[in-house]
Structure formats: structure tokens, C-alpha cells
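Action item from last week, closing it out:
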Amino acid sequence: MSFASLGLHPDLLGALAARPKYQRPYPIQNKAIPAILQGRDLLAIARTGSGKTAAFILPLLQLIHCQPPGARRTLNVLILVPTRELAAQVAEVAREFGQKLTPSVKSGAVFGGVAINPQMIRMNGIELLVATPGRLLELVEKNSVQLSSVTALVLDEAEKMLQEGFQEELEQILALLPNKRQNLLFSATFGAEVRRLAGGLLSGPLEIEIREEVVGAELITQLIYTVTPERKGPLLRYLIKNGDGEQLLVFTASQKRADNVVGKLLVNGISAAPFHGGLSQGKRTAALDSFRAGTLQVLVATDLASRGIDIEFLHHVVNYELPRSPNDYIHRIGRTGRAENCGTAVTLLCPEDMAHFRVIEKRLGQRLARIDTAELDLAGY
């Protein structure tokens, strides 16, 4: 199936054809785009990396473009996300394609951690807005944005918004929106909280579940190194210094651990930076920009912050610590092996993590071979 068969506007098809990463639709795009163009509510269970951003951005841009002239230059589409980086990432996709339409669709992102005044200025004439809940409510309080004209609402990474305690902010925002609107809910999992949210929000939705264990899984080599806790840091540095010089995205379970790992890497002459919610937006943006530019070899991130990391040719991912859920493990390793490029996912597995890792393997549907590092000489690392 091609994008041309999904009912998209010729301007959007031309923009897609010019980008190699959009050679053909992903499964979620095949199912979601026609439904959204028809005005249906949608419940989609799909991970980051499944193509979901384009699945809702493309048809929503088209719906805005097809509005009568009198309805343009007002806020039509509101997209809520849990993190600053994800807001910027989604807004960039909207800007990229929205400017290809004639007339173009004005879009933007608002999020905390940066000055609010420049964001207030950019609200004039905005038609598609990507926002984190807290900053959106601040703008509403300052009368910088009106939600009464919204015709479509998207909740992206809904489970993460609920996990991070945005329930109250979501309720406040929903109370400000028109009752008659299209609602699209995207989540990596469909737990009890998301189920309750969907039940109260959606009306006769089309339900989509993308069941691939990992997008591009056949391109990902998983290496599981068994190691004692005290040798984990030296092993990571050994792998980096004896590797091929490629960049690595390293995952930790906490902000404190991320800072600690970065400190040890810097002391050992390895360029590294942390990436987590405890940092200012300026520091997070600088770290991500350096990593994307190739001037930073290692980015050490927590799971929540990693939702906004979108690097097309990332070849190595390292699980320094296991995530809490098997779904987060799948999300992590799915950061590599993208765009038809091979990738490697490394996990440093301590004895106390074995039982939890077997749960992850059960979710993957396979048992992964362990590589014993007990005899590896890590002196000097």
C-alpha cells in the first residue's frame, strides 16, 4: 500500500515523496490516516518508533487545510504530550509538512522550562499546537490561547502523562474544550488508567493495536553481558573504548544514576552528558543538539526524557540498568535498528536482575544468550 491510497492531499504526497524515510506507510499509518480523515475518534496502542506521529499529523494538517477560510488562523488542533522534547519533536513534523500546504498551516510547540513570553507572542494565528499540560494552562490563564475553537484533540504518550501525574491538568484542559470534537488517544500500553481515560474521552473509536514486538526487530542485535554491580561501570567504559567509536544512548533508571555514570565517563576521557527531567531545558537542548551533531559520544538518559529523542541513525543503545516494565525495554531497544539500518542493543545484566529479565524475555517471546564477563580484564577502566 502507498501513501497515495490513503486519501492524502497532493501537497502532502509530494512532501512525503521527497523524504526517503517515508517511502511507504507503516501499519499504524495505513489504519489511522483514513479513519482520522473521516473524522472518527481513535484509540491506538503503539510505541514510539512505530510511525504514529506522522499517522496523526498528516491527516490533521489536511483537515485544517480543508477548513473554510473563515475558520482558519484559529486553534483547530491541540496535541498534548508529557515531555518538552516530545513536544518539540512532534511540532517539527507538523512544521515540516504544514509548510508544504498552500496556504500553509501555522503550528508550534509550548512547554515549560523556558521563558513564557516568546511562546505567548507565537500564539497569534496558530492552528495546530503541541503542548505539555502545565505550560498550556499557564498560557490559558494569561489569555494567550483560547481553546474554544479546537476541533480535534490528540493525547500522545497517554500512559506517560498519567504516570507523571498529569491527571488533574488533563481534567482542567478537557473542561475548557468544546464538547463536540474529534479525539485521538495514542498510548504504548493499555493499562487500567488509560482504559478509564479512553472510556470517558472517546466516542465509538476505531481501535488499533500495532503488535510488532520491536519496529525493525530483525535489524537489532541484542547483546546481554552478565556482570557484577561493582564491575558494571568499568565494563561500560571498556565497551566504549574498545568499540568502533560510534555514539551510544545509555539508559539508566534514575536521574542520580545518570549523573553518576556521566561523571565517571568524563573522568575517563569519554565525552558524555546527562539527559533527564532534573536538568534545565537549556541544558537538555544543548546535550541533545551536541549528540545529534556528533560532537558528543554518549548521551545518558532516563526513560521519560528519552521519549523526545528521535535520532534516525543511532547504532548503539545500552541498558545500563533495566527498566521497570518489559514495554519500556522494547521502547528502549527500538531506538536503534530504524530506517532500515542495523543496530545493536546492549544490556548489562547483574545477578539480582535475572528474574526481572526473564519477564522481559517472556514479553519478547525469546530467550537471549548471555555473555559472561567474569574473566574479562577490566583493570584501568
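Closing note: DSSP finds 14 helices and 14 strands in the chain.
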